[in-house]
Amino acid sequence: MKILVYSDYSRINHSVRPEAEIFLQLASMGHTVSVFSPRLDPAEPFTAAGIRTATTAQTAKVSPTSIRLLRRELRRENYDVVFATSSRTIPTAAFACMGFNCKLVVYRGTTRGLKRSDPTSFLSVLHPRVDAVLTVSDAVSEAVRKKLYKNRDKVVSIFKGHDIEWYKDPPADLAEFSIPPNAVVAIAVARFRPSKGLRYLLEASELLADIEPLHLLIVGSGADQAPYTSIVMNSPMRDRIHITGRREDALRLIAAADMLVQPSVDGEGLPRSIIEALAFGKPVISTTAGGAKEVVEEGKSGLIIPPANSVAIARSIRALAAEPETIQTMSEHCRNLVRTRLSHTKTAAAYEQFFQSLCSEQAPIPRSIGDHQGIYTAVAPDYLQHRAAILKLLENFDASGEILHRKRNTVKKMLLCDTPVVVKSFNIPRGIRAFIYGRVRKSKARRSFEHARRLRTLGISTPEPIAFIEERRRGQLAASHYVSEYFPHDFSMTYGFSGNEDSAIINAFTQFTFDLHEAGVLHWDHNPSNTLVRDQAGAWEFTIIDINRMRFGSLSLKQRMKNFVRLTDDISTMKNLAHCYARLAGEHPELCETLLMKQKQRHWRKLALKKQLKRLFGKGPR
Length: 622
Fold this sequence. Notes:
It is a single chain. The protein is α/β, with parallel strands linked by helices and 622 residues long. The chain contains 20 helices and 25 strands. The protein has four domains: 2-157, Glycogen Phosphorylase B (Rossmann fold, 3-Layer(aba) Sandwich); 164-342, 3-Layer(aba) Sandwich (Rossmann fold); 365-485; 491-616, Transferase(Phosphotransferase), domain 1. It starts with a strand and ends in a 6-residue tail after the last helix. The relative contact order is 0.07.
C-alpha cells in the first residue's frame, strides 16, 4: 500500500511516539509511507527509516496553500490511503482529497467536542469526504457513530500500542516533595479542569487521612483556581497532597509512585498516562468514563470505579494501600498487558489490516446503458469481463428469472453466462428518502456489496458479491440492484426454528451467531429466513444473506442478546438460546436470559405499536 500521513510532528516527544511508531512499523512491513507535517522536529525518526517527509508550514485550520501542496503530492503519487490525525490537519487533508480515488482515514481520540450543531465538526470527522474513522477506544467509536450521517460501519477502534522497552526511566526522587521512602504514593497526571475529575480525588483525601504513609501526588497545571485551592486547604491530608504543576519528568514520577488514579468524569478516549503506568507495572484506579475500562482488568491490573464518586476513589486507594502484596501481584500483570494487548507491533498490524480492508473495496465506476445516463456500477475484480452481461441481466430483470422472494424487494435467481446468480432489486425509495439515498446515504445495494466483501475478509460465510448497480435521476435514487452468487442450500433457519429439527441445529446456529459477534459483526436483520443452511456430511454450514443493514465493532452483551429477538417467539427456545450463548461467552446463564427476555418484551411492544399505528392510519386490518 501507499500511505500518506498528514499529522503534526513539529515536536517529537513521548506523547507522539506511539503514533509515529505505527508508521515506522508499516514502512518496515514493506509499505510505502510518506509523512507530511506543518513543521518537523529536527530529531524526527522518519528520514532515517527511508520515509519521505515534507513540511507544509500550515498555521490556519484550513490552509489553501497546504491544500494545493497535498493535491500536488496526490497527483504525483497514486496513494491508497491518506491518514490525518489532528483538528488542524484533518480539514486540509479532506479538501485536498476531493476528486482523488484514495481512502481518507481520520483519527479521533476523545469522546467530546463532536457536535452536529457545530459547523467546525463538518471540517473534521463529519466532513463528507471522510471514508473511515480510526479511534483509540470503543467508547470514542460509539460517540463518533452517534454523530455520523454515513459510514458508521467504518468507525474502528484500535489501541495506540506501546513498547515496554520505552519505559526504562529511573524513578524520580520524591524527597523533593518531602515524601519519605516508605510512603505509599498515589499519583494522578492530568490538567485541573472539570472533565478530569480531580476535585473528586481531592475530596477523597478527607476519607484517607487516617492512612499515615499515604501521599497524593498530582502532576498537572491549573490547581491555583476554585474549587481546588479550598478543597486542599480544608483537607485533613493537606500536608500530604503534593501538586507539582506541569512537569517534563512525569514518566519518572509515575515510575516512583505505587498506583495511578484516573478520576475522569467524561471526555476521555484512552488516557496515555494509564498505559504509561501499566508499562511501569503500576496498577490503575480508573473511572468508567472513556476507554479505560476496556484496558484495565478489574482486580488484575487495577480497579474500575464509577465517575464523580469520591467515596469509591477513597475505597479503592485504601484497598491497594492496605495490601502491598496485591500491588506487587498486579505489577507483572500490568507489564504483560502492555507486552500483549497494548504492544505497538500489534497496533501496526491492526492498522495494516484495516487499511487493506478499505483498499479492497472497489469504488463505483460510472457507466451508461443506451440513452439512459446516471447508471453506476461496481463489479468485483473476478467478474469484470462479465460487466456487459451483468447490465443485460438488469434489462431483462422484469421478464426473466425465477422469483425467490417478492414483497417489499424482489429477489430472483438468474443465469449469468450459464452460472446461477441472485439479483436483488430493492424497493424504490420515494420522496425525501429518494433524495437521502441519492445524496447522503449509500444505497442498500452498495451497502450489501461492501458488507459482503468485508464479511468474507473476516472469514464469515455469505454469497460472493458480484456487482451493484444504481440509477439516479435528478440527484435522486431511482433504482438499485445487488448481484451475488447463488448459494445452494438445503433450507433456511425458518425450518430450523419450526420444531422440525432437534436442538443440535439450534446449538450450532447459536455457535455461528457467537462467532459473528466475536468477529465484531452485528447483523441487524438476523432473522431465520436470512440464514441459509447446508448439510455438509452431518455438519451444518451457515451463510447469511440480506446484509445491507450491519454494524461492525465491539458489542456489549446487551447488544448481543438483542440480536436474537427476531429469531423466534417461543419462550422455551429463547431461554435455550440464552443459556447456550452464555456457555460460549463465559457469562452467567441467568444474566443472558434476563437480558434477552427484556429485549424481547421491548420488541413485542414495538410491534404492537406499529400495528396500532397502521390501523389508525388505515394501513392494516381493523
